[in-house]
Specification:
By secondary structure, the chain is α+β, with helices and mostly antiparallel strands. About 40% of the residues lie in helices and about 15% in strands. The chain has a two-stranded antiparallel ribbon.
């Protein structure tokens, strides 16, 4: 059996090779939380700014998330605070 931590070389594993899989449960849980946060953030943005807000992309990692959305202007400090409060209170 081969032990491979990570590879982007497809020739390392061949059809018929036996492999095992392990999951970093802490990282998976943290990623899951951030994934849920993107849904909460999207809903809060739509509630505060309007239904025209659309998700344009996201990045979800165990340590952080990035949420890209469409809106025709920069958010005011009041809008940002309102979005933050909605997400925090969910």
């Amino acid at each position: 059996m081969k032990t491979i931590k990570y590879t982007d070389n497809p020739s390392v594993v061949s059809i018929g090779d036996k492999v095992t899989n392990s999951v970093d449960s802490i990282a998976r849980q943290d990623s899951g939380r951030n994934h849920t946060a993107t849904h909460l953030l999207h809903a809060a943005l739509r509630a505060v700014l309007g239904n025209h807000v659309r998700q344009a992309g996201s990045l979800v990692e165990p340590e952080r998330l990035r949420f890209v959305f469409s809106h025709p202007q920069a958010l005011t400090k009041i809008e940002i605070n309102n979005v933050q409060n909605l997400v925090r209170n969910k």
